[in-house]
Automatic annotation (TrEMBL):
The keyword Metal-binding does not apply. InterPro entries: Alkaline_pH_Ca-Antiporter, NaCa_Exmemb. PANTHER family: SODIUM-POTASSIUM/PROTON ANTIPORTER CHAA (PTHR37958), SODIUM-POTASSIUM_PROTON ANTIPORTER CHAA (PTHR37958:SF1). This is Ionic transporter y4hA. The keyword DNA damage does not apply. It comes from the Bacteria. Its main location: membrane.
Length: 361
């Protein structure tokens, strides 16, 4: 009974109940605020349960669990909003995936490096693993988000059906290859590296939770993530109204969705950075970006069979400049295998530029 009353158990269950009560209904101001509070609580609970599962299975599987779980929910959210939306949702997949790319490669990476560097001076991580992940991210982003702008088989920044099928299969193949590399063939490339000045035992954990506790947390993680994406869908009319009232372009809705979906991973990455586990933070960041593109594009390509309207995936000039600059800066950050506050600050400035230009294109 005491376990049921713990907030990490109660909040996801309450959020799921709230989802059932509010689904498909128009909400007044008070219910919208209550749903927002439960949404934030579900995010925090999801982070807790993800860390329990990660502690049980170890790295890099723990990072992979959260990245895949959150991305599957992201795909569901994009598909649901695309089905229920109109012409304005033609770019929703592109806007959300690109926002996820920028938030992970500049936001999560930047704040993790900054937090780690504030404590240890110079952060250390595995350049082989992070470099391989970054190369995968860059390839996925280019194939799925840049090429549609330059292809000529279809008018506009849109793939032809055959090109979309190729991009989907290539994205899925790259994702599977990366997962096999991360978890089987070269798992050691993605394990945490001890920081300079880190005290003996500082990074040690308590005994791993029991299998029963880990399975319980896995179930509650799924419940929490379902609640997060469901309540985000419930909040979407209020989000769209707020975006319109603020005078922001409709594409900013994709940014808000990405922020909500990536909140659990961001919190988990910051916690790992505080413990000196910078590689875990980078695993979460780049793993989330890979999963976001590598799973979303195939799912959207499959759903386009029954979805009406065009599927615009190609980025505009401003977005492509940001993508190229982010990849170049990320390469310079990752290759040495060490970073300072400066690298973290550069990544966060790129994030600020992305958000500003998303508001004021």
């Amino acid at each position: 009974m005491r376990q049921l009353l713990h907030w990490t158990v109660a909040v996801p269950l309450l959020a799921l109940v709230a989802l059932a009560l509010t689904w498909g209904r128009e909400l007044d101001v008070v219910p919208v605020v209550l749903v927002a509070l439960l949404l934030a609580g579900a995010v925090l609970a999801a982070v807790h349960h993800a860390e329990v599962v990660a502690h049980r299975v170890g790295e890099p599987f723990g990072s992979l669990v959260l990245a895949v779980a959150v991305t599957v929910i992201e795909v569901g959210l994009i598909v649901m909003l695309t089905v229920s939306g109109g012409e304005e949702t033609a770019t929703l997949a592109r806007d959300t995936v690109f926002a996820a790319f920028m938030l992970t490669t500049t936001g999560i990476v930047g704040i993790s490096l900054l937090v780690g560097a504030r404590r240890y001076g110079v952060t250390l991580f595995n350049a082989e693993g992070s470099g391989a992940a970054l190369a995968t991210v860059a390839t996925l982003a280019t194939l799925s988000l840049v090429l549609p702008t330059f292809t000529t088989s279809q008018p506009g920044p849109e793939f032809s059906p055959g090109q979309l099928a190729f991009a989907a299969l290539a994205s899925l193949a790259l994702y599977v290859a990366f997962v096999l590399t991360q978890t089987v063939r070269h798992r050691d490339f993605f394990l945490p590296v001890a920081q300079h000045g880190q005290q003996d035992g500082e990074d040690e954990h308590a005994a791993p939770p029991s299998a029963r506790a880990a399975l319980t947390s896995l179930g509650l993680l799924v419940v929490g993530l379902l609640a997060v994406v469901g309540l985000a869908k419930v909040e979407s009319p209020a989000i769209e109204s707020a975006v319109a009232a603020a005078g922001f372009p409709h594409s900013f809705v994709g940014v808000v969705i990405a922020v909500l979906v990536l909140a659990p991973e961001t919190l988990a990455a910051v916690r790992a950075a505080r413990r000196g586990r910078i590689q875990t933070s980078l695993n979460l960041a780049y793993g989330s970006a890979i999963a976001s593109i590598g799973l979303t594009i195939p799912a959207i390509a499959l759903s386009s069979v029954w979805l009406d309207g065009p599927l615009l995936l190609g980025l505009g000039p401003t977005q492509m400049v940001l993508l190229v600059l982010t990849v170049v800066v990320s390469v310079l950050t990752v290759v040495p295998g060490r970073a300072t506050r400066l690298q973290g600050s550069v990544h966060l400035v790129l994030l600020a530029a992305f958000v500003f230009l998303a508001i004021n294109p």
